[in-house]
Predict the structure.
Amino acid sequence: MDNLIRGLPHTLGALRRSAFSEDRIGSRGVKDELRSNLICKLRKRESLFPGILGFDDTVVPQVVNALLSRHNFILLGLRGQAKTRLIRMLTSLLDEAAPYVAGCEIHDHPYHPICRRCRDLVAEQGDETPIAWLTREQRYVEKLATPDVTIADMIGDIDPIKAARHGHDISDELTVHYGLVPRANRGIFAINELPDLAGKIQVGLFNIMQEGDVQIKGFPVRLPLDILLVFTANPEDYTARGKIITPLKDRIGSEIRTHYPASLEQGLAITEQEAWCDRPSAVAVQVPVFIREIVEQLAFLAREDKRVDKRSGVSQRLPISVLENVVSNAERRALSSGEKVAVPRVQDIYAALPSITGKLELEYEGELKGGDTVARELIRSAVGRIYDRYFDGVNMSQIVQWFDLGGSLKLEETIDAGAMAGRLNSIQGLMEKTAALGVDPSDSDAVRASAAEFILEGLHAHRRISRSEERGYSAEERRREPVTGTRERETPDLPRPQRRQFN
């Protein structure tokens, strides 16, 4: 990029004689620029937003339509739906470099400057007017909306120090200190969490969006800004009365809804892309597919659980953070026991509770149970769902019978893979069942132990066997309920969860 800029014209006269002539780019605004470059990418069938997964058939087409329509738009979605990441990637649709009048605070276009300083400079120096260049990244400005943001921050204010230093009258346009929005001129200005912006600031925004008139301390300044405005918001806040003023909503061209992954496969792809699992370490990390699936299923179940606040949502950061924590726990165990390979187990998912509880906003019922309890129940349910994907209808009676006959097995979290595989191998028929998970006898003890433990945890999730802190895995104790007189009868096992169908 530096080499490119060094080879570009640096005076207005040279600019007019270059490929950036007035006939070619003189009247093209940023929205026209985005539209033109987007059309080129569509014709070439290039990927528009690489790394944004799960939006190809939903969000991306709507963003494309908004850009082709030259609309300012808003992304509505719960937390952790890649809204900010998506709008930051809009810079890839800008030109690699854009000329502006050197030294201008609001990056005036050399062919039609809008601020007083640049108009005077071009009139005075003509073709010798110095030109500088903006990169794509420099043309993107982002602001997190907070209640303490002022109109001076966003639009600007009169700067008495500037007036005194240059000997200007306080009413002179040259004394204006421009805010963030004018400084984003000829680029993209993004506001995250728009509803948190005070109403009077929103008024200043919609005036710029439509009329281009700005008032600073009662001093009228005509600024026809060339800018694309993009917003993000939570749907609950956006639709609440008084959060967004009606004239601003009316001026936003397109309202686009984002969403969480629609299928387990999409979630797995996102988490695999984002989670830090391929890390430099003294041990190799090998994460079984079923562990990844349990972690991802955990997020899907949390989004459906009535104890979790639906308005807050369950961020896609949850499975990403959980998987990283799961890998770290397995890594810690492998380092402590001197093993060369770290293979996560279901136990490691329970050890990752700190990365779960902080991301769940609970309803009243969930608060009564407590975050740890809710998280443990979600993990158990997730294990049951993934177990059904591999073993639904598979006869596990031989394994269950081993426990019914008095067998028990306690597996400490810190036990090394060899010792754990040896204990699990004593359970009749268990290791043979791991073949359904793609495990064979030639695999390492760590892989075989992880797969066998998953099967036991799946049986526990379906209440075929029991597990406690004291005894570990053991036979399921049937609940007994009193009946008439002194006689008691055994209640049958609770029904197994229905298998979830995945798209």
